[in-house]
Fold each of these.
Amino acid sequence: IWTGLQVIAALAPIACFGTVEALLKQVAFYRGKNDADNLRKVENAVFGTIVIAAALLSAVLVAGAGFLPFKFVQDNLLLTQITAAATAISFFASYYYYRCTAYEDFKLVGIFDSFRSFSTLVCVLLFAWRWGLLGAIIGCLVSELLNWLVVAWVCGKAHGNVHAGFQPALMASAVRVGFPITIIWWVYAIHLSVGRMTTISYLGNAAAGYYGVGSSIAMLFALVPNMIGRVFYPRINAQIGAMAGQNALRHSVVTPTSVITLLMPLAQAVIFFLLPLIYIWFLPKYKEGVVCAQILIFGAFFVGMIRNGANYLIAVDRSEERRVGKECRSRW
């Protein structure tokens, strides 16, 4: 049941149509150009799309969940509704989180990450101890609400308040920029979700548990290169907006990727041989799934390697548009 609810939470952000990606890309780009007016327009338009996406998700999976023709949803109706409500709230927390990322305010980002981990741990464990699985889901809801309130207040103090803008042209522009970017992550999320649901359907609960634990360990391993990519993404966009030279871009794109390429295989080898001991000491109930985790650890190499290169390809698209536009104007 927990794995199925995770699938809902992983796929629900599709409702935003990639506008958070547009926020990351365009805010950093306009920061590099020192264009405060367009920067604020992007922030407000993206916030408007977040409001609409959260409302739609609530209407479909909270108010209308009882009418959906899915057996899992009907068998776990209340849990699905609470998960959907928590996910809808997480849209707002994610907006402010990535807004700070676009401003390269990584001190606040680090504080938010720490607070989110702490609040999730406390709320989920506290409520799960009292009410079991239902309590764990309620704890996720409470945690997301706390995260939203804290991150919105702190981000507003640091970078100014935003207001939901519902201008169709600006919202369509945000979708047009962010949608192609987010398709990459949609495919990845759907791939993971299909894998989990297939495991549940054909291999049973025990194999699903082994797969879930193994994939969680692999994702933790890939967290470091993904965090490096997250740090450099707004910087690359800002450098392109500021017309930075090739040396600056090489320092932000090639150098970190080269370092990750050298260090990850060494770290994978160490983790590979330590995993049996980790399972015996900390996860004895799942020790039969250690081979699954070892295989997924090696697969995490490719997950960790794509982020920074994808950042550059996404960012350079705007610079190519600008180059073509200048060429057309000069010919005109």
Note: The CA atoms of residues 9 and 87 lie 6 Å apart.
Amino acid sequence: ARRTGAKADRRCRSAGAQARLARVVGEHESHPRACDCGGGGERLVESACLAVKTNVVKYPSSSHYETVARAFQVLDIATPLNVALPPSSGLETVRDTIGEAMAFDPDQEFCLIRERRKIYGYFAFGDEALFEEPLEGVAKDHLTHITPNQIVPGSTYLLDAIPLFQQHFFFFVLTRNDITHVVSFLHLDKLPMRLCLFSLLAALESAMTDLLSESSERYLRTLPIKQLRKATNLCQRKYGKAWQTPQRILLCTELSDKITMLVSSPHLFNGLPFKSKSEGLGFFEQMRRLRNSVAHGASVLDILRSPGEFDSFIRQLRRVTERTSNLRSV
């Protein structure tokens, strides 16, 4: 591929790969020459790649926590597309095939309509066409087409894919020039994404600890007696009373304690990117709940309920972490 093409989107590795992919994604017969490998096909693939690139938010890799957060890709949480039928299949066959697949694996809700490597479209379990009686016609006349902006490369970082779910609830995943998986917003509750979240949350807690440690004794005084005593007792058990220092007591505090110390220190809290104190308190409460959910196996989607809310929290989490890392205690 030409250098300019690679620069436009590294995941579209070459013009040859784009041409091959153009032959994979087909359309309805009423759309002439939809699957050929000419200029129209290349534009289809370029549009798919551009749709992903345009909406991906790139974040700097500046810490070991970021390295962990970027260790996972879309393919790590996506569900394989194991069900496929030819375009001449009857609608009853499509419905029965999906039902049988879901009986063994509830995640097999999709059926690709394909002929060898040419993909015409898909059916989903909830499609009305599969439940209208009588079931007449063949698959190619009732399927849903796969559009370029519903395709995401499997190598996309999970963190970069989060904003995309504000446009579509699910995406088809591209692996080596073939559509092999499907990924949805609900998949963000899987273990790889939870580990990404935990790493980002740990990055902020680490930045808070570093900031507070510049004057540990001063900030520990802002804690309620009960919490301070709890941290002190833990420090004695871990290090021994003779080795107890304010810095080590700080290391034995909980996340909620660090939040209390930060919020109780106006010269620190006012340096964070919040428009009001209530906004800051709301963020830290959401952070605390989310960290507990990740640590104890509860669903993160009970807290980040929509794609917009999920994306908004991640963006704010990064801003707060960056600002906290740059603050200095006085």
Note: Confidence is low (pLDDT under 50) at residues 1-47, 54-61.
Amino acid sequence: RRPPRSTLFPYTTLFRSVMVAAMDDLDDHRTFSAKRQVFQSANRVSSMSMLTLNEIASRGIPVNKLRYTPLGVPLDQFVPDPRDRKEIYAKEISNSPMAANAPASHFTPETIRLGIVGRRYVDGRKGEQFLMDAIRLLSTRIPQGMTICLSFVGPRWEAMGGIDLSDLPNVVIEFHPDLPFDMYPSVYNTLDAVVVTSKTEGGPMCIMEALACGTRVISTPGGHANEFLTRLNSDGDEELGNIVGYGDVPGLARMLKEWVCDNINATRLPTTRARISRVMRETDNLSYRKPGGEGHDPFAPYDWAHFVRNYTEIYLEIAAEMGDGVHVADY
């Protein structure tokens, strides 16, 4: 199981917050000068995006401080489920707390299930209005008898209000603020796509979790989404995910219509989900390696164990430099 964030990320919340804050202003030299002081004072600057690291390096931050730390997921848990969604619902969901907000009617063949996974924030960075506007437009373009189900998985989506499309007869919404982590694979396997509409992102983790389960993704280019999806699409034989510009309401509605709704039968095939998941597992994450590749396997998938090891090595490097008597060789 993925360990609690507090056990793995004692400092990376700061790193991530700095990265998100800086990315919006990288083209503004006046703002970046303040960010540079933070980067220069850090022992290491980590990012899951190589593009971000290259941009920071171009602004004068020493390369030897930069570390590429691609995300990873527990690949032994996030796997495609060959059962259809009705069976998954009956066996995994109907008797769980999730069923209170997710009736069986949300899992019919005529229902397009779209997942929005992750914590909502007060600043609107998740693109809530962008999503609502696109779904409203999409609802006018889908065939009669088809229903769109938006499944919000994560805290605050319902509590903060504003997520309401009850005036649309062909759209239903479900909220799951406290879903146990071991339920996530079952949920991903009932989704037709995961949709990310964020203005800025730290990852997001849900892209990798979805793909590991064979679920396609539509995302804005925040975080590592653009370079990660581009890499997987170029290495595999399947269009795994699409990128849409933030705020492009017609573009997102069109993408959902053409790429998800119009191809729903092919998307749900177990062979399709298995192929998507296989590309995720067979792509090397190109994570940071020491000269000669010491300490790393020749091939490193996007797995949680490699993610943990990357961060562990960063901490051990810093400890060794500070003279605490800890060396990477001891790990």
Note: Strands lie at 45-47, 66-68, 111-117, 147-153, 171-176, 193-196, 217-219, 241-243.
